[in-house]
Amino acid sequence: MNRRLLFRLGLLALSCILLVADAKAGDRNTDTPKRYRVIFNSDGHGVFKDAEGNLEQWIENLFGPLENSHVDALFWCDGAGGNTANYDSRVLERSGARVGKTDPKLQALINQGNDPPLVVVREARKRKIDVFYSFRINDIHDAFMADERPTFKIEHPEWLLGKKKYGAVTSYPTALNFAFKEVRDLKFRAMEEILTKYDFDGLEIDFLRSAPYFLPGTVKKNAPLLTELITRYHRLILRQSRKRGRRLQLAVRVDESLAACARDGFEVAKWINRGLVDHVILGSGVIDIEIEEFRKLARPRNVHVYPCLYGWPSRYSPIPRKLAAATALNYWNQGADGIYLFNWFPHTQNNSEQTGPWMASMLDRIGDPARLRATESELMFVVDRGRPAGEYPSNWLHCVLPTALETGKPLSLRLRVRENLATQASSLSLGVQVDNLQSEDRIAVTLGGKTITDWKPAGKNRLETEIPASLITRGDNPVTLELVQQSKASGTDRVARAVELNVRR
Prior knowledge:
alpha/beta, Jelly Rolls, globular
Protein backbone atom coordinates (compact mmCIF):
# COMPACT_ATOMS: atom_id res chain seq x y z
CA MET A 1 0.00 0.00 0.00
CA ASN A 2 1.60 3.29 -1.10
CA ARG A 3 1.94 6.36 1.07
CA ARG A 4 -0.62 8.38 -0.92
CA LEU A 5 -3.29 5.72 -0.35
CA LEU A 6 -2.43 5.52 3.36
CA PHE A 7 -2.69 9.30 3.60
CA ARG A 8 -6.11 9.28 1.93
CA LEU A 9 -7.35 6.48 4.19
CA GLY A 10 -6.12 8.46 7.19
CA LEU A 11 -8.01 11.56 6.03
CA LEU A 12 -11.15 9.47 5.50
CA ALA A 13 -10.92 8.01 9.00
CA LEU A 14 -10.38 11.47 10.50
CA SER A 15 -13.40 12.82 8.57
CA CYS A 16 -15.56 9.99 9.91
CA ILE A 17 -14.48 10.73 13.47
CA LEU A 18 -15.27 14.42 13.03
CA LEU A 19 -18.64 13.64 11.48
CA VAL A 20 -19.55 11.38 14.39
CA ALA A 21 -18.45 14.04 16.87
CA ASP A 22 -20.51 16.67 15.08
CA ALA A 23 -23.53 14.38 15.04
CA LYS A 24 -23.26 13.71 18.75
CA ALA A 25 -22.98 17.41 19.48
CA GLY A 26 -25.50 18.85 17.10
CA ASP A 27 -27.51 16.58 14.78
CA ARG A 28 -31.16 16.47 15.92
CA ASN A 29 -31.66 13.11 14.19
CA THR A 30 -29.08 11.19 16.23
CA ASP A 31 -30.45 11.50 19.74
CA THR A 32 -33.39 12.67 21.81
CA PRO A 33 -33.35 15.88 23.83
CA LYS A 34 -33.69 15.63 27.57
CA ARG A 35 -37.20 15.37 28.95
CA TYR A 36 -37.79 17.54 31.98
CA ARG A 37 -40.36 16.79 34.68
CA VAL A 38 -40.69 20.47 35.58
CA ILE A 39 -39.30 23.50 33.79
CA PHE A 40 -39.18 26.56 36.01
CA ASN A 41 -39.26 29.87 34.14
CA SER A 42 -37.83 32.57 36.35
CA ASP A 43 -38.56 36.22 35.66
CA GLY A 44 -35.25 37.56 36.87
CA HIS A 45 -36.72 40.92 37.86
CA GLY A 46 -38.75 39.76 40.87
CA VAL A 47 -36.15 37.59 42.58
CA PHE A 48 -33.40 40.15 41.92
CA LYS A 49 -35.46 43.11 43.15
CA ASP A 50 -36.51 41.31 46.32
CA ALA A 51 -32.84 40.55 47.15
CA GLU A 52 -32.12 44.31 47.35
CA GLY A 53 -28.60 43.95 45.92
CA ASN A 54 -27.48 41.11 48.20
CA LEU A 55 -25.78 38.50 45.98
CA GLU A 56 -26.26 35.57 48.34
CA GLN A 57 -29.90 36.46 48.94
CA TRP A 58 -30.51 36.69 45.21
CA ILE A 59 -28.98 33.23 44.70
CA GLU A 60 -31.14 31.89 47.54
CA ASN A 61 -34.28 33.53 46.12
CA LEU A 62 -33.65 31.92 42.75
CA PHE A 63 -32.30 28.49 43.64
CA GLY A 64 -33.42 27.81 47.21
CA PRO A 65 -36.97 26.71 46.30
CA LEU A 66 -35.66 24.53 43.45
CA GLU A 67 -33.51 22.30 45.64
CA ASN A 68 -34.96 18.85 46.41
CA SER A 69 -37.73 19.58 43.92
CA HIS A 70 -38.91 18.16 40.60
CA VAL A 71 -37.37 21.07 38.70
CA ASP A 72 -34.89 19.67 36.17
CA ALA A 73 -34.45 22.82 34.09
CA LEU A 74 -34.35 26.53 34.84
CA PHE A 75 -35.40 28.86 32.01
CA TRP A 76 -33.93 32.13 33.21
CA CYS A 77 -35.07 35.52 31.95
CA ASP A 78 -32.93 38.47 33.03
CA GLY A 79 -36.11 40.44 33.73
CA ALA A 80 -35.57 43.16 31.15
CA GLY A 81 -37.98 41.96 28.50
CA GLY A 82 -35.60 41.39 25.60
CA ASN A 83 -35.36 45.00 24.39
CA THR A 84 -32.82 46.11 26.99
CA ALA A 85 -30.45 44.02 29.10
CA ASN A 86 -29.98 43.37 32.82
CA TYR A 87 -26.52 41.96 32.12
CA ASP A 88 -23.27 43.11 30.54
CA SER A 89 -24.30 43.30 26.88
CA ARG A 90 -22.74 44.96 23.86
CA VAL A 91 -25.81 44.36 21.68
CA LEU A 92 -28.63 45.66 23.90
CA GLU A 93 -28.36 48.75 26.06
CA ARG A 94 -28.73 48.46 29.83
CA SER A 95 -32.24 48.85 31.23
CA GLY A 96 -32.79 52.48 32.17
CA ALA A 97 -29.82 53.79 30.17
CA ARG A 98 -31.98 55.84 27.82
CA VAL A 99 -33.62 57.71 30.72
CA GLY A 100 -30.52 57.85 32.95
CA LYS A 101 -31.82 55.36 35.52
CA THR A 102 -29.67 52.23 35.36
CA ASP A 103 -29.65 50.04 38.47
CA PRO A 104 -26.52 50.77 40.57
CA LYS A 105 -26.92 47.44 42.40
CA LEU A 106 -26.76 45.57 39.11
CA GLN A 107 -23.71 47.56 38.02
CA ALA A 108 -22.00 46.82 41.32
CA LEU A 109 -22.45 43.08 40.78
CA ILE A 110 -21.07 43.31 37.25
CA ASN A 111 -18.07 45.32 38.49
CA GLN A 112 -17.40 42.58 41.06
CA GLY A 113 -17.34 39.90 38.34
CA ASN A 114 -20.86 38.73 39.11
CA ASP A 115 -22.53 39.39 35.77
CA PRO A 116 -25.98 37.77 36.34
CA PRO A 117 -25.82 35.18 33.52
CA LEU A 118 -22.41 34.01 34.79
CA VAL A 119 -23.81 33.60 38.29
CA VAL A 120 -26.98 31.81 37.13
CA VAL A 121 -25.06 29.32 34.98
CA ARG A 122 -22.50 28.67 37.73
CA GLU A 123 -25.13 28.07 40.42
CA ALA A 124 -27.24 25.87 38.14
CA ARG A 125 -24.19 23.70 37.42
CA LYS A 126 -23.59 23.25 41.14
CA ARG A 127 -27.13 21.94 41.54
CA LYS A 128 -27.07 19.80 38.36
CA ILE A 129 -29.98 21.75 36.85
CA ASP A 130 -29.98 22.50 33.14
CA VAL A 131 -30.27 26.23 32.49
CA PHE A 132 -31.64 27.95 29.38
CA TYR A 133 -31.71 31.64 28.61
CA SER A 134 -35.36 32.64 28.14
CA PHE A 135 -35.63 35.38 25.52
CA ARG A 136 -38.80 37.47 25.42
CA ILE A 137 -38.49 38.28 21.78
CA ASN A 138 -41.20 40.96 21.49
CA ASP A 139 -42.03 42.08 25.02
CA ILE A 140 -44.31 45.13 25.34
CA HIS A 141 -43.78 46.08 29.00
CA ASP A 142 -41.85 49.06 27.64
CA ALA A 143 -45.20 50.55 26.60
CA PHE A 144 -45.66 51.52 30.27
CA MET A 145 -42.18 51.04 31.77
CA ALA A 146 -39.88 53.79 30.46
CA ASP A 147 -36.67 52.18 31.73
CA GLU A 148 -37.27 49.14 29.47
CA ARG A 149 -37.94 51.18 26.32
CA PRO A 150 -34.76 51.06 24.22
CA THR A 151 -33.25 53.82 22.14
CA PHE A 152 -33.72 51.79 18.94
CA LYS A 153 -37.51 52.08 19.29
CA ILE A 154 -37.24 55.84 19.67
CA GLU A 155 -34.92 56.19 16.67
CA HIS A 156 -36.90 53.77 14.48
CA PRO A 157 -40.62 54.28 15.06
CA GLU A 158 -41.22 52.66 11.66
CA TRP A 159 -40.19 49.33 13.25
CA LEU A 160 -43.20 49.44 15.59
CA LEU A 161 -46.66 48.06 14.87
CA GLY A 162 -48.35 50.83 16.81
CA LYS A 163 -51.96 50.61 17.94
CA LYS A 164 -53.70 48.37 15.43
CA LYS A 165 -56.92 46.38 15.61
CA TYR A 166 -56.61 42.59 15.72
CA GLY A 167 -60.15 41.37 15.91
CA ALA A 168 -61.66 42.88 19.03
CA VAL A 169 -58.36 43.95 20.60
CA THR A 170 -55.78 46.68 20.00
CA SER A 171 -52.06 45.95 19.99
CA TYR A 172 -49.64 47.68 22.30
CA PRO A 173 -47.93 50.63 20.61
CA THR A 174 -44.38 49.37 21.23
CA ALA A 175 -44.77 45.88 19.71
CA LEU A 176 -42.19 45.31 16.98
CA ASN A 177 -42.98 44.55 13.36
CA PHE A 178 -40.93 41.48 12.48
CA ALA A 179 -41.46 42.09 8.77
CA PHE A 180 -38.42 44.37 9.10
CA LYS A 181 -35.16 42.50 8.55
CA GLU A 182 -33.42 44.95 10.90
CA VAL A 183 -35.69 43.83 13.74
CA ARG A 184 -35.05 40.15 13.10
CA ASP A 185 -31.30 40.73 12.80
CA LEU A 186 -31.20 42.61 16.11
CA LYS A 187 -33.10 39.85 17.88
CA PHE A 188 -30.72 37.29 16.43
CA ARG A 189 -27.58 39.18 17.44
CA ALA A 190 -28.80 39.49 21.02
CA MET A 191 -29.06 35.69 21.33
CA GLU A 192 -25.86 35.10 19.41
CA GLU A 193 -24.11 37.14 22.10
CA ILE A 194 -25.84 35.21 24.90
CA LEU A 195 -24.91 31.77 23.57
CA THR A 196 -21.32 32.67 22.68
CA LYS A 197 -20.56 34.63 25.85
CA TYR A 198 -22.33 32.48 28.46
CA ASP A 199 -22.41 28.70 28.91
CA PHE A 200 -26.17 28.11 28.81
CA ASP A 201 -27.52 24.65 27.98
CA GLY A 202 -30.03 26.06 25.57
CA LEU A 203 -32.22 28.90 24.47
CA GLU A 204 -35.96 29.52 24.80
CA ILE A 205 -37.61 31.84 22.29
CA ASP A 206 -40.70 33.12 24.11
CA PHE A 207 -43.10 34.14 21.35
CA LEU A 208 -45.85 34.80 23.89
CA ARG A 209 -43.97 37.86 25.10
CA SER A 210 -45.69 39.04 22.93
CA ALA A 211 -47.85 38.77 19.83
CA PRO A 212 -48.70 40.25 17.38
CA TYR A 213 -45.64 40.19 15.13
CA PHE A 214 -47.01 41.62 11.90
CA LEU A 215 -49.52 44.20 10.73
CA PRO A 216 -53.15 43.09 10.43
CA GLY A 217 -53.79 41.18 7.21
CA THR A 218 -50.10 40.34 6.64
CA VAL A 219 -49.60 37.43 9.06
CA LYS A 220 -49.99 34.56 6.58
CA LYS A 221 -47.66 36.20 4.06
CA ASN A 222 -45.01 37.01 6.69
CA ALA A 223 -45.16 33.84 8.81
CA PRO A 224 -42.21 32.29 6.88
CA LEU A 225 -40.06 35.14 8.21
CA LEU A 226 -40.44 33.79 11.75
CA THR A 227 -39.61 30.30 10.47
CA GLU A 228 -36.50 31.75 8.86
CA LEU A 229 -35.54 33.34 12.19
CA ILE A 230 -36.09 30.06 14.06
CA THR A 231 -33.86 28.39 11.46
CA ARG A 232 -31.11 30.90 12.22
CA TYR A 233 -31.44 30.19 15.94
CA HIS A 234 -31.28 26.46 15.21
CA ARG A 235 -28.06 26.90 13.23
CA LEU A 236 -26.63 28.98 16.08
CA ILE A 237 -27.48 26.15 18.48
CA LEU A 238 -25.75 23.64 16.19
CA ARG A 239 -22.60 25.76 15.92
CA GLN A 240 -22.35 26.20 19.67
CA SER A 241 -23.06 22.50 20.24
CA ARG A 242 -20.10 21.58 18.05
CA LYS A 243 -17.81 24.08 19.75
CA ARG A 244 -18.69 22.82 23.23
CA GLY A 245 -18.89 19.15 22.36
CA ARG A 246 -22.34 18.72 23.87
CA ARG A 247 -25.91 19.00 22.68
CA LEU A 248 -27.48 22.42 23.27
CA GLN A 249 -31.24 22.70 22.88
CA LEU A 250 -33.83 25.09 21.47
CA ALA A 251 -37.28 25.66 22.99
CA VAL A 252 -40.17 27.83 21.84
CA ARG A 253 -43.25 29.06 23.72
CA VAL A 254 -46.34 29.45 21.54
CA ASP A 255 -50.14 29.60 21.75
CA GLU A 256 -52.29 26.90 23.35
CA SER A 257 -53.74 25.55 20.07
CA LEU A 258 -52.61 25.10 16.49
CA ALA A 259 -55.43 27.38 15.33
CA ALA A 260 -54.16 30.17 17.57
CA CYS A 261 -50.58 29.61 16.41
CA ALA A 262 -51.67 29.99 12.79
CA ARG A 263 -53.35 33.30 13.59
CA ASP A 264 -50.11 34.62 15.11
CA GLY A 265 -47.81 33.38 12.34
CA PHE A 266 -46.18 30.53 14.27
CA GLU A 267 -45.56 27.69 11.77
CA VAL A 268 -45.07 25.18 14.57
CA ALA A 269 -45.65 22.09 12.40
CA LYS A 270 -42.81 23.17 10.09
CA TRP A 271 -40.53 23.90 13.05
CA ILE A 272 -41.14 20.41 14.39
CA ASN A 273 -41.00 18.55 11.08
CA ARG A 274 -37.78 20.27 10.03
CA GLY A 275 -36.10 19.36 13.32
CA LEU A 276 -35.59 22.98 14.31
CA VAL A 277 -36.83 22.76 17.90
CA ASP A 278 -36.46 20.37 20.82
CA HIS A 279 -39.18 21.59 23.20
CA VAL A 280 -42.54 23.26 22.57
CA ILE A 281 -44.17 25.13 25.47
CA LEU A 282 -47.88 25.89 25.17
CA GLY A 283 -49.97 28.78 26.42
CA SER A 284 -49.77 31.87 28.57
CA GLY A 285 -52.54 32.59 31.05
CA VAL A 286 -55.03 30.08 29.69
CA ILE A 287 -56.07 26.93 31.56
CA ASP A 288 -57.41 24.66 28.78
CA ILE A 289 -54.50 23.72 26.50
CA GLU A 290 -54.77 21.41 23.46
CA ILE A 291 -51.79 19.22 24.27
CA GLU A 292 -52.89 16.22 22.20
CA GLU A 293 -52.78 17.97 18.83
CA PHE A 294 -49.20 19.11 19.43
CA ARG A 295 -48.16 15.67 20.68
CA LYS A 296 -49.28 14.10 17.38
CA LEU A 297 -46.81 16.34 15.58
CA ALA A 298 -44.05 16.22 18.17
CA ARG A 299 -43.78 12.58 19.19
CA PRO A 300 -42.53 11.19 15.83
CA ARG A 301 -39.82 13.86 15.82
CA ASN A 302 -38.67 13.30 19.43
CA VAL A 303 -39.83 16.80 20.40
CA HIS A 304 -41.20 17.35 23.90
CA VAL A 305 -44.41 19.23 24.72
CA TYR A 306 -44.98 21.18 27.95
CA PRO A 307 -48.17 23.04 28.91
CA CYS A 308 -47.64 26.31 30.77
CA LEU A 309 -49.06 26.40 34.29
CA TYR A 310 -49.35 30.12 34.84
CA GLY A 311 -49.09 31.96 38.14
CA TRP A 312 -52.36 33.85 37.68
CA PRO A 313 -54.37 32.12 34.94
CA SER A 314 -57.79 33.21 33.73
CA ARG A 315 -57.98 36.02 36.29
CA TYR A 316 -57.35 33.72 39.26
CA SER A 317 -54.75 35.98 40.81
CA PRO A 318 -52.75 34.34 42.20
CA ILE A 319 -53.64 30.78 41.25
CA PRO A 320 -55.13 28.86 44.22
CA ARG A 321 -53.20 25.79 45.27
CA LYS A 322 -56.12 23.45 44.54
CA LEU A 323 -56.48 24.88 41.02
CA ALA A 324 -52.75 24.45 40.37
CA ALA A 325 -52.94 20.80 41.46
CA ALA A 326 -56.05 20.03 39.37
CA THR A 327 -54.71 21.80 36.29
CA ALA A 328 -51.38 19.94 36.50
CA LEU A 329 -53.25 16.62 36.75
CA ASN A 330 -55.32 17.52 33.70
CA TYR A 331 -52.13 18.25 31.79
CA TRP A 332 -50.46 14.99 32.81
CA ASN A 333 -53.57 13.07 31.77
CA GLN A 334 -53.49 14.79 28.35
CA GLY A 335 -50.02 13.40 27.68
CA ALA A 336 -47.75 16.27 28.69
CA ASP A 337 -44.04 15.46 28.77
CA GLY A 338 -43.66 17.73 31.79
CA ILE A 339 -45.00 20.91 33.40
CA TYR A 340 -43.73 24.41 32.63
CA LEU A 341 -44.17 26.99 35.39
CA PHE A 342 -44.40 30.67 34.48
CA ASN A 343 -44.82 33.65 36.81
CA TRP A 344 -44.35 31.45 39.86
CA PHE A 345 -42.52 33.20 42.70
CA PRO A 346 -41.77 30.57 45.37
CA HIS A 347 -38.99 32.35 47.25
CA THR A 348 -39.87 32.99 50.89
CA GLN A 349 -37.57 35.89 51.83
CA ASN A 350 -39.08 39.33 51.14
CA ASN A 351 -41.46 37.94 48.50
CA SER A 352 -43.28 40.91 46.97
CA GLU A 353 -45.76 38.51 45.31
CA GLN A 354 -46.66 36.87 48.66
CA THR A 355 -46.98 33.41 47.13
CA GLY A 356 -43.71 31.89 48.30
CA PRO A 357 -44.63 29.31 50.94
CA TRP A 358 -47.27 27.26 49.16
CA MET A 359 -45.69 27.52 45.71
CA ALA A 360 -42.38 26.28 47.10
CA SER A 361 -44.12 23.36 48.81
CA MET A 362 -45.60 22.12 45.50
CA LEU A 363 -42.31 21.90 43.62
CA ASP A 364 -41.54 18.43 45.00
CA ARG A 365 -44.81 16.90 43.73
CA ILE A 366 -46.03 18.76 40.66
CA GLY A 367 -43.74 16.73 38.38
CA ASP A 368 -45.30 13.41 39.47
CA PRO A 369 -49.07 12.91 39.04
CA ALA A 370 -49.12 9.97 41.45
CA ARG A 371 -47.50 12.07 44.17
CA LEU A 372 -49.89 14.94 43.44
CA ARG A 373 -52.85 12.63 43.95
CA ALA A 374 -51.37 11.27 47.16
CA THR A 375 -50.55 14.64 48.74
CA GLU A 376 -53.17 17.15 47.56
CA SER A 377 -56.47 16.69 49.40
CA GLU A 378 -58.29 19.44 47.48
CA LEU A 379 -58.66 20.03 43.75
CA MET A 380 -60.51 22.68 41.78
CA PHE A 381 -61.44 22.25 38.11
CA VAL A 382 -62.80 25.36 36.42
CA VAL A 383 -64.34 26.61 33.21
CA ASP A 384 -61.55 28.55 31.54
CA ARG A 385 -62.33 32.25 31.34
CA GLY A 386 -60.69 35.18 29.62
CA ARG A 387 -60.58 37.31 26.53
CA PRO A 388 -57.92 37.96 23.91
CA ALA A 389 -55.82 40.96 24.96
CA GLY A 390 -53.46 43.41 23.30
CA GLU A 391 -50.45 41.18 23.97
CA TYR A 392 -52.39 37.93 23.37
CA PRO A 393 -54.66 38.55 20.36
CA SER A 394 -55.07 34.83 19.69
CA ASN A 395 -55.24 33.39 23.21
CA TRP A 396 -58.49 32.33 24.88
CA LEU A 397 -60.17 31.68 21.53
CA HIS A 398 -62.25 28.92 23.17
CA CYS A 399 -63.28 30.98 26.18
CA VAL A 400 -66.89 32.09 26.65
CA LEU A 401 -66.73 33.60 30.13
CA PRO A 402 -67.28 36.28 31.21
CA THR A 403 -70.59 36.76 29.37
CA ALA A 404 -73.83 38.58 30.19
CA LEU A 405 -76.72 36.15 30.56
CA GLU A 406 -79.87 36.74 28.54
CA THR A 407 -83.26 35.53 29.70
CA GLY A 408 -84.26 32.36 27.88
CA LYS A 409 -80.90 31.89 26.11
CA PRO A 410 -78.75 29.09 27.59
CA LEU A 411 -75.00 29.77 27.67
CA SER A 412 -72.92 26.71 26.66
CA LEU A 413 -69.62 26.10 28.45
CA ARG A 414 -66.94 23.39 28.83
CA LEU A 415 -65.59 22.03 32.12
CA ARG A 416 -62.47 19.95 31.47
CA VAL A 417 -61.80 17.17 34.01
CA ARG A 418 -59.29 14.49 33.02
CA GLU A 419 -59.12 12.79 36.46
CA ASN A 420 -61.26 9.78 37.41
CA LEU A 421 -63.08 11.38 40.32
CA ALA A 422 -65.40 8.41 40.91
CA THR A 423 -62.54 6.55 42.63
CA GLN A 424 -60.98 9.56 44.38
CA ALA A 425 -63.55 12.05 45.63
CA SER A 426 -65.18 12.07 49.04
CA SER A 427 -67.26 15.14 48.19
CA LEU A 428 -67.84 17.37 45.18
CA SER A 429 -69.42 20.80 45.02
CA LEU A 430 -70.29 22.82 41.96
CA GLY A 431 -70.12 26.61 42.23
CA VAL A 432 -71.14 29.44 39.92
CA GLN A 433 -70.42 33.16 40.10
CA VAL A 434 -72.80 35.63 38.46
CA ASP A 435 -72.13 39.34 38.88
CA ASN A 436 -75.05 41.46 40.17
CA LEU A 437 -76.94 38.35 41.24
CA GLN A 438 -80.20 39.15 43.09
CA SER A 439 -82.06 36.94 45.55
CA GLU A 440 -85.13 36.78 43.25
CA ASP A 441 -83.11 35.79 40.18
CA ARG A 442 -83.52 32.23 38.93
CA ILE A 443 -80.49 30.58 37.31
CA ALA A 444 -80.84 27.17 35.67
CA VAL A 445 -77.69 25.02 35.41
CA THR A 446 -77.15 21.74 33.61
CA LEU A 447 -74.09 19.49 33.77
CA GLY A 448 -73.79 16.77 31.15
CA GLY A 449 -77.39 17.41 30.19
CA LYS A 450 -78.71 16.91 33.74
CA THR A 451 -80.30 19.76 35.69
CA ILE A 452 -78.47 20.70 38.88
CA THR A 453 -80.63 21.74 41.84
CA ASP A 454 -80.47 22.63 45.55
CA TRP A 455 -78.37 25.76 45.09
CA LYS A 456 -77.38 27.71 48.20
CA PRO A 457 -75.80 31.17 48.57
CA ALA A 458 -72.00 30.91 49.02
CA GLY A 459 -70.99 34.55 49.33
CA LYS A 460 -71.65 37.62 47.23
CA ASN A 461 -72.79 36.73 43.70
CA ARG A 462 -72.04 33.03 44.27
CA LEU A 463 -74.13 29.87 44.45
CA GLU A 464 -73.02 26.36 45.37
CA THR A 465 -74.43 22.84 45.56
CA GLU A 466 -73.20 19.32 46.29
CA ILE A 467 -73.17 16.87 43.38
CA PRO A 468 -72.36 13.15 43.02
CA ALA A 469 -69.13 12.12 41.32
CA SER A 470 -71.15 10.07 38.84
CA LEU A 471 -72.17 13.32 37.10
CA ILE A 472 -68.58 14.07 36.07
CA THR A 473 -67.25 12.50 32.89
CA ARG A 474 -63.53 12.00 32.46
CA GLY A 475 -63.09 14.47 29.64
CA ASP A 476 -64.92 17.63 28.56
CA ASN A 477 -68.12 18.10 30.53
CA PRO A 478 -70.79 20.31 28.89
CA VAL A 479 -72.30 22.94 31.18
CA THR A 480 -75.14 25.35 30.47
CA LEU A 481 -76.20 28.44 32.40
CA GLU A 482 -79.54 30.11 31.77
CA LEU A 483 -81.14 33.18 33.32
CA VAL A 484 -84.69 31.92 33.70
CA GLN A 485 -85.95 34.90 35.64
CA GLN A 486 -84.37 38.29 36.35
CA SER A 487 -85.44 40.30 39.39
CA LYS A 488 -87.03 43.62 38.55
CA ALA A 489 -85.10 45.14 41.46
CA SER A 490 -82.06 45.57 39.20
CA GLY A 491 -81.78 46.04 35.45
CA THR A 492 -77.99 45.62 35.50
CA ASP A 493 -76.64 42.73 33.42
CA ARG A 494 -76.11 39.41 35.16
CA VAL A 495 -72.60 38.48 34.04
CA ALA A 496 -71.57 34.83 34.29
CA ARG A 497 -68.06 34.98 35.69
CA ALA A 498 -67.03 31.50 36.87
CA VAL A 499 -68.01 27.83 37.08
CA GLU A 500 -65.93 25.80 39.54
CA LEU A 501 -65.86 22.16 40.60
CA ASN A 502 -64.36 21.73 44.07
CA VAL A 503 -63.18 18.25 45.02
CA ARG A 504 -62.29 16.96 48.47
CA ARG A 505 -60.60 13.58 48.80
